[in-house]
Amino acid sequence: MASALQAIEESVAFLREHLRVLYVFPSQAYASDAGMSEYDPKLIVDGLEKLHATLGIREPEIVYLRPDGYIGLRTQVLHAKPLLEYFRLIYAHN
User: Fold this and answer.
1) What is the three-class DSSP state of 47?
2) pTM confidence score
3) Is 62 helix (H, G, I), strand (E, B) or coil?
4) How many CB atoms are closer than 10 A to CB 45?
5) What angle do the packed helices 81-91 and 2-11 form, to 10 degrees?
6) pLDDT tens digits for range 61-76
7) Which of 14, 56, 57, 72 has the maximum number of C-beta atoms within 10 A of its C-beta?
């Protein structure tokens, strides 16, 4: 899973000025299994799983929170294509 997460993050690197990538795991054990270091500043451990419960997350997924705080995209497809297509659709210049 670590390679899939890293590939997604790298695919949106050109948006680094406008986009912050964070990884939310229900426990440090899940994060470690995914290859995340406990010292990674992008890691959030949802130890009580409140965020997971609130959003109904049961499987790994990508969640894009818009600048206004609303959810813009949720997908369990763990590669960059859906996310990049969403960005093109929403932020495309005419």
Assistant:
1) coil
2) 0.83
3) strand
4) 17
5) 20
6) 999 999 899 999 999 9
7) 57
